[in-house]
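JOB MANIFEST
job_type = single_chain_structure
chain_count = 1
residues = 305
[input]
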Amino acid sequence: MKFLKLLFLLAMLISFSAITLSATPTEDVSFPDFDFEDKENSDHLPTESQETTSSLRGTNRFLAQTRAYMTCDKNPRVCEVQGSAGPDCCKKMCVNQMTDWFNCGKCGKKCRYTEICCEGQCVNPMYSKNHCGGCNNECKKGSVCQVYNTQNMKFLKLLFLLAMLISFSAITLSATPTEDVSFPDFDFEDKENSDHHQTESQETTSSLRGTNRVLAQTRAFMTCDKNPRVCRVQGSAGPDCCKKMCVNQMTDWFNCGKCGKKCKYTEICCKGKCVNPMYNKNHCGGCNNKCKKGSACQYGMCSYA
């Protein structure tokens, strides 16, 4: 089993090294000769832009301070409200260090791609006896956690052969000659030549972009956009996949109801909707905390008339 893993990693390293070596330009790269006629005016322009942007930065800082008033680093009790992602505060975000993949046990501690966070520790559910296949799934005495069986061994062999074929195809594709990489000579007086150079540069860079796509596909093999079932494993952050991350759209502050929908600093996500727990009758002080008839929600508490 370990020998197959080593062979698989060796094949992937060979393919990556072949792609990177083929992507490097062989001939000398010529850079453009820029000719600026008036340098005094160009030196004067940045000073004016710096003066104008300095005043804008002051207003932005003031707005940032007012917006960040409700973050958990200033108010740790925000994470204790019902509907929050967790009781712990890491980088102005409420998380649960017992199950969070990016903050497992402490802030900033990330687990590996083959691991999950169980009880504040990064474990491998494929071989862990206490967390076999998921968190808190403990094996009985005398048994061993082996998720792979004989059928999976055959599947690993097929994967190894497939990786070898991919590496060989990448080497052959990278060995094909491409056009010479050259940068255009900028001439501000002749616009027709500049348009012609742009089309040539787009054609030359397209071959390099192809190699980057191959590398990006191999890196994103274990993300949830390719394997949505990863989000269904016990210990994941949620069943939904947003930007290659497992989230819960019913309670996630950054993806409330749908991917990319962020709530305001004074709001929380309850049942896929952004609500203000200070004044919402159905979610007063936290999610699903509904006030009775005749009462109003004021400052997170149900006031009775």
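[summary]
The helical segments are 2-23, 39-67, 150-175, 191-219.
The radius of gyration is 28 Å.
exit_status = 0
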